[in-house]
Design brief:
Two copies of one chain form a homodimer. Helices cover about 40% and strands about 20% of the residues of chain A. By secondary structure, the first copy, chain A, is of the alpha/beta class. In chain A, helix 6 packs across helix 7 and helix 7 (about 220-245) packs across helix 8. The mean pLDDT of chain A is about 95. Chains A and B meet through helix 7 and helix 9 of A and helix 7 and helix 9 of B.
């Protein structure tokens, strides 16, 4: 009997990616739907179930040839019990027993986890953090999230709410943050904060892609915005470096596309602000798996869950 | 044959404590020497060796009745190889193979570790953090250090330089720190920073004990100093809470004697600045073992080392 395949889903604030992977994590098919089309929680759940059935039929598979469905979601998840606590950027989700609901609808084992944790799991198992024992893998976007690998495993703590690098305060006082705190890293370097700063400096709407393009072409105003992002990110990472002395820090997500300018400033800040031994040990790396990291992580989650 | 006893040594910037403990961690004898009497590294090492011999003879023991000597030191240590990298507050120590030197002089197994890590190990095994799986145990003093318990074990990372809570930056820019960074927590709430602030507010030298006494008597100036210490400590701890979601945080050391005022402000700040789920989960506790925590930790280190 051939090895089973896995269905992986990456649910974001703007779209849902659904893929079929084999046991070697090779992607056999992939499709993308807009999350915005589903106004209700029930509509979105029905669409996930339908998409899974479509993937199975379009690939001429039987359910018995699938080992399970893994889903990454943008919010705090009880991974053990398969419950979505809430989704900050998708209204209407609160304490949803998604694993139970979907297993009933689909008839296959379902595993859930936070998207940043799955990205970290993927980068650790087959990406930039491979071979490291202790690592922090960040995703920069509207939110600034991370997954923490400690002693070769995703570190969840008792609450499963770990790795919240976006909510490390970088000043005693500062801008209000969505989390209820203030002066959190995300309030300075989340996409919205960067776009706002860019608008005020350029006196017009300007996209992150344009901002990266301008900075790389030598525009000083654009470069300064990215340098500030890198310096503040480096500052929060110095706290992680001094506390945990990780082997590597992997940076991915949209904002990371600013590339060299950003990474240079992050590294410089860590050398300036973190302690010598830890700062010299840690490697600052670009994520290796790109935008499919979440799908790989979801597939790995299923494989681990089925084996356990 | 009766169970063997252990010799534990806690080497501080101002004094050395030496104790004899049994397998139940009961202290049978304890003595204190001033570190200041030993101007040279060689003198201090000779004194440690002599003290061990004195403890053995004064208690009418034979070497075969001792399982080993555990030593906590105030600085970065390579615990695996028994090397002292350096001691920030005791000049002349750099890459000292103390384990090797002492085993040669004493003829007993010797184990070394950082004092904050040993305090954490003791609080975890028999103090305030007992029963927690993930904990941060802090010592407030001239330095602000901590030991991190992750999944029930001291977390060392690759470098063994972990738990450096005193060097979490709490502002983008701020006072210079001994570590080479700036705006580190220790630069605001280390003993010297507090004494300096007290002197400038009271226009005279004032000790930490007096400052605590005045604050507890209702003196507003003194209370405000402790509130600032608590708020800044709470801010740095909010970063740890958001990153690691520990079960408890144990606070000990001289400054912790300010008591209620300090703990109240720490708790308040964590509830204000950390994320809801993690902030509600974490317990903020006072250290249970007092100033002997380092000795207990050193004895536990020997017992673990001998068993391993």
């Amino acid at each position: 009997m051939p090895l089973k395949k896995t269905i992986a889903i990456d649910l974001g604030g703007t779209n849902i990616k659904i893929a079929l992977l084999d046991h070697n994590l090779k992607i056999w098919s992939k499709s993308v739907l807009s999350t915005r089309n589903f106004f209700s929680k029930a509509g979105l759940i029905a669409q996930i179930a339908d998409s899974v059935k479509t993937v199975i039929s379009e690939n001429n598979l039987k359910k018995t040839e699938i080992n399970g469905v893994g889903i990454g979601l943008p919010g705090p998840i009880d991974a053990k019990n398969g419950i979505v606590h809430f989704l900050p950027n998708i209204p209407g989700w609160k304490e949803v027993k998604l694993k139970l609901i979907l297993e009933h609808k689909i008839g296959l084992p379902v595993f859930l986890d936070n998207d940043a944790k799955l990205m970290a799991l993927a980068e650790y198992k087959k990406g930039a953090a491979k071979g490291s024992r202790n690592a922090l893998c960040l995703t920069l976007g509207t939110g600034v999230g991370a997954g923490l690998i400690i002693n070769g495993e995703i570190f969840r703590g008792f609450t499963n709410a770990t790795g919240e690098i976006g909510h490390l305060p970088i000043n005693e006082y500062g801008p209000k943050c969505n989390c209820g705190g203030q002066a959190c890293l995300e309030a300075y370097i989340g996409n919205n904060a960067i776009l706002k700063e860019a608008k005020s400096k350029f006196h017009k709407q300007i996209s992150l892609e344009e901002l990266s393009y301008l900075a790389n072409k030598g525009d000083k105003k654009a470069a300064d915005i990215w340098k500030n992002v890198g310096r503040r990110l480096g500052l929060a990472l110095s706290a992680v470096v001094n506390l945990l002395s990780p082997d590597c820090i992997v940076i991915g997500g949209g904002v990371a596309n600013a590339g060299k300018i950003l990474f240079k400033e992050v590294k410089k800040t860590i050398l300036e602000r973190a302690m010598r031994v830890q700062a010299r040990h840690v490697k600052i790396l670009s994520a290796a798996l790109g935008s499919d990291a979440g799908l790989f992580g979801a597939a790995i989650l299923v494989n681990q869950g089925v084996e356990a």
